[in-house]
């Protein structure tokens, strides 16, 4: 079974002078969670276009901060499925401290050919995306 969760502990480099997490720390963890999940299923982000006929590019990202987190807090980032369209999809990223949802992130990806033109989501990728737990973004 492939784990769709990345766990990590905040350090001083993740936080401001007051020990509260810097807002941008969530973005690398969203990317890490997504690319590790793909890799665990035998796909590498940089090789999607050559392997499946279409690669992905990030076209939108955002995060909603629901509760402050501090240095040495242990967090988990879980990938969830929000929307799968014809040529793009959006994934949610639930950041939890224990059972508490502290941040919710979103990344939207569009599929493109090697030449950069719009492409449908490849069947293998679509099937894999559909295995993620579906969710609605929380109210922030």
Topology record:
Blueprint: E1 5-9, H1 26-40, H2 48-52, E2 55-65, E3 74-84, E4 88-97, E5 100-112, H3 123-129
Summary?
The protein contains 3 helices and 5 strands.
Structural account:
Strands 1-3-4-5-2 form a 5-stranded antiparallel β-sheet. The termini are far apart. It has helices at 26-40, 48-52, 123-129; strands at residues 5-9, 55-65, 74-84, 88-97, 100-112. By secondary structure, the chain is an alpha+beta fold. The radius of gyration is 16 Å and the shape is elongated. The model has no long low-confidence stretch (mean pLDDT 93).
Q: What spatial order of strands do you see in the largest sheet? A: 1-3-4-5-2
What is the overall shape?
elongated
Whole-number average pLDDT? Answer: 93
Q: SS-based structural class? A: alpha+beta
What is the oligomer described by this structure? single chain
Strand percent estimate: 35-45%
DSSP summary: helix tally: 3
Cα separation of the termini: 32 Å
């Amino acid at each position: 079974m492939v784990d769709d969760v990345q766990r990590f502990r905040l350090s001083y480099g993740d936080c401001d002078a007051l020990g509260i997490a810097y807002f941008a720390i969530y973005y690398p963890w969203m990317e890490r969670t997504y690319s590790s999940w793909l890799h665990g299923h035998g796909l590498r982000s940089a090789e999607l276009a050559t392997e499946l006929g279409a690669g992905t590019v990030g076209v939108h990202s955002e995060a909603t901060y629901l509760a402050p987190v501090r240095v040495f807090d242990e967090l988990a980032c879980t990938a969830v499925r929000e929307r799968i369209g014809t040529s793009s999809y959006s994934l949610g990223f639930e950041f939890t401290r224990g059972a508490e949802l502290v941040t919710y992130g979103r990344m939207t990806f569009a599929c493109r050919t090697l030449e950069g033109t719009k492409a449908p989501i490849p069947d293998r990728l679509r099937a894999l995306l559909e295995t993620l737990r579906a969710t609605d973004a929380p109210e922030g």
